[in-house]
Amino acid sequence: AVWGQVDAVVAAGLNGAYLRRHVSVPVVQVKIIGFEVMNALATARRISPRVALLGQAGQYPELETFLSTFSLDIPVRSYRDPDDALAQVQALKGEGIEVIVGSGLLVDYAERIGLTGVLVYSPATIGACIEDAIEITRLQRIESGRREYLNAVLSNLDEGVAAVDASGRIQALNPAVERLLGISASGMAGRRLEEISPALSLGEVLRSGKREAESVHRLAGKMVVVNRIPLATGAGLSGAVLT
């Protein structure tokens, strides 16, 4: 996929785990509930009595107890990675298994070697995950719109504005600050403000949570009036703004 054209991904099993580690867009992982597993096994048993369930280690913690309690002869196997998954499917075929229940990867492997695969996820669950992904995208676009609006406002202010997060790392610098300090904001995000200009440090405000109004500093050969404003949320101090 071209990630610049993708807002969110819906995935399950090893695919979902891999993508969460390797892509920057949100990944909604499909969760399996017990009822769906039982429904998939029932569908598989209508195809053949020789059924096995495959999942990642620890994916079906209560199922083996349930199957043994009700004397259901359905092997439950786990796999570590795609190579192990394929080996498990091949081994089950050698044991006479005819239908494999599992994720899309396992269904693909089963059908590749002449078995029948039954997907463990229901269309309703997939649909719900897609709805979640759409909602995440909608909220991201709202937030992106707000950020663009704020950046447009900051860009057109004659007053210099710098914002940092709760750890003092730069989140925004407007063009007036760039002109004053003779720097470019490009690449500054994530750096500490005092690294660029010790006189503009917001460390004390972040420690005390108290506003500092109209202190005078000499900066880049000019006298400037500085305001330091803590930003508080219900969860505590979230950052600070310097003007």
Description:
- Strands 8-7-11-10-9 form a five-stranded antiparallel β-sheet, covered by helices on one side.
- It has helices spanning 13-22, 34-47, 63-69, 82-94, 104-112, 123-155, 175-181, 193-196, 203-208; strands at 9-11, 27-29, 51-56, 76-79, 99-102, 116-119, 162-165, 170-173, 212-219, 222-233, 236-242.
- The longest helix is centred in the middle third of the chain and has 33 residues, at 123-155.
- A hairpin with a 2-residue loop joins β10 and β11.
- It is an alpha/beta fold.
- α4 (82-94) crosses α5.
- The two termini are 43 Å apart.
- The chain is built from nine helices and eleven strands.
Features:
alpha/beta; 243 residues; elongated
Number of helices: 9
Helix content: 40-55%
Please mark out the parts with pLDDT under 50 across 5 or more consecutive residues, or reply none.
none
Gyration radius (Cα, Å) is: 28 Å
Note the run of SSEs as H and E.
Answer: EHEHEHEHEHEHEEHHHEEE
Q: Estimate the global geometry from the Cα principal axes.
A: elongated
Query: Could you tell me the mean pLDDT?
Result: 86
Beta-strand residue fraction: 15-25%
Secondary structural class: alpha/beta
What is the CA–CA distance across the termini?
43 Å
The largest sheet is: 5 strands, antiparallel
Total beta strands: 11
Order of strands, widest sheet: 8-7-11-10-9
